[in-house]
Amino acid sequence: MAALPDRAQTGQQSTGSFEMVPPGQLPAAETLLTQADSENFTVAARVLPRSIRRRLLAVYGYARLVDYVGDEAIGPREGLLDLLEHDLRRVYAGTPRIPLLQALVPVVRECGIPQELLARLITANRQDQQVHRYRTFAELADYCAYSANPVGELVLHIFGCARPDLIALSDRVCTALQILEHCQDVTEDGRRGRVYLPTEDLEYFSCPEQDLVSASASPELRDLIWFEVDRARQLLDEATPLVSRLSGLARLAVAGYVAGGRATVRAFATAGHDPVSAAVRPNRIRVFGEWARLCLSGTAPGGEAVRVRSAYRRCEEITRREAKNFSYGISLLPGPKRRALSAVYAFARRIDDIGDGERPDEDKLAGLDHARDELRSADTDSADPVLVALADTARRMSVPLEVFDELIEGCEADVRGRRYETFDELLHYCRCVAGSVGRLSLAVFGDDDSPTARARADALGVALQLTNILRDVLEDRRNGRVYLPRQDMERFGVRLDLTEDGMPADDPAALAELIRFEAGRAEQWYAEGLLLLPMLDHRSRACCAAMAGIYHELLRRITDDPRTVLRTRVSLPSRQKIAVAARSLAGMAS
């Protein structure tokens, strides 16, 4: 496609000259109109009369042409935008030169469309040439007032119902659709040097811009996308009365646009709020279902309940992806408990990730301190999906969120590189980082909160953490961490020094005996912790038995061949984890 010659740029020649635009500089009308099928919503439903479809497609074609010039045209785009603006003025004189603008002539006459409304789309694309970041959502919303909202108002003009109250609701719909499109196109926009997610939101979620163009979505980006998509959902909820205030063909058409937005929100949930790995597009069947519901009732599900369900789904995504062992047990719980335990796990995982991350130690400690503050302010109105779900869990199940303070304390010890002189010191650490999670899980199970049950939940957590320490002894040492008590190491003549190639320098036999000794201690904690199982209901018992069973089998493998952990990270194949979970559900776990 040829570029617009330099002499056609603004200030270098009259924008009234169309002879300076080489053939093919602007795409054919048919090329742009075919893009209607790839939109999140139905642009011009076939059930509408031909005259209405013609008007809607004319407006769509114009909007697509302006976007093409602002986003994709090769060469000096300002000159082409000048040309479009000039031809738009000719529309109102009945003499445009560009085919897609010629199609607008009867529409503006029949529907009384103001020129200023169509010109706003050009203004937005001029802004795109200069502004590539938006600091706040308010700034982005101002941009949407030019880039998206005019389209909704144009639709209302086509149906003869462009009243101020309806326009205000339509603006919310269009801003929501624009936000969703920005989320869908986050990588494509990023590669063009444009970021339409507010800078303040990227900073809140600690999401660097390079995450927008990475090969896979980071947890921070997924949380950010959840927040932006939820913001769009709230706008759609606020605007839903627009449908009920319309009737006839207007209601049918506008309901389709709202339905497309709602279906796109669901598509993001299905995709794990990951717009990077694959294109996020709404399912046409779901679009139709949302459309039918809106047309018939004029309303759609919304409010806090939808937001909370979406937050729980985000926590379940984190659990499935990150909890390689725990997810098998959590999946055995009934829905409410499964979602609640996923929320507990998701926040616990966040704390662990802060402690194990790549940031400087002082930043890690500040991050852990911030996590404490987040717990104090957790609410279903929070911007963070994990905090939304956690607040709801605490409210419904009386989960003592203050117990997370112990987990944070343990992670702070990790960051400071603390080592342990005696087993009692290590035991305190294990109770902080794992016993705490056991007690939180017990609150979710909700069967028995007696001191005996809490002590056994704590013991089971200790057993699992000791298993973790033995499994990861080599990996932790390479990362500068030693958890085995110094007194025990001296007893077996072990120093846990490493050779130049990162392998243990100790006598293998001595090191194996030390690991077997610590494994024996862990067995004692399993013996006490597994006494919790009879105190739980069937499904909670199955969940707990599955999680404990997988780790217990790991410990057995380590005990049978302690030298294995000195060569590699011991793990169970997925089929064996599934078998343990199945036995647990059937009440057969040992």
UniProtKB/TrEMBL annotation:
Any one GO MF term held by the record is: geranylgeranyl diphosphate synthase activity
Q: Residues annotated as region Disordered?
A: 1-22
* Keyword Transferase on entry: yes
Q: Which pathway does it take part in?
A: Carotenoid biosynthesis; phytoene biosynthesis
Q: Which InterPro entries did the record assign?
A: HSQ_synthase_HpnC (IPR017827), Isoprenoid_synthase_dom_sf (IPR008949), SQ_synth_HpnD-like (IPR017828), Squ/phyt_synthse (IPR002060), Squalene/phytoene_synthase_CS (IPR019845), Trans_IPPS_bact-type (IPR044843), Trans_IPPS_HH (IPR033904)
Q: Which GO terms describe its biological process?
A: carotenoid biosynthetic process
Residue ranges of coiled coil: none
Q: Which UniProt keywords apply?
A: Transferase
Which Gene3D superfamilies does UniProt cross-reference here? Farnesyl Diphosphate Synthase
Q: Does the keyword Transferase apply?
A: yes
The protein in question is named Farnesyl-diphosphate farnesyltransferase
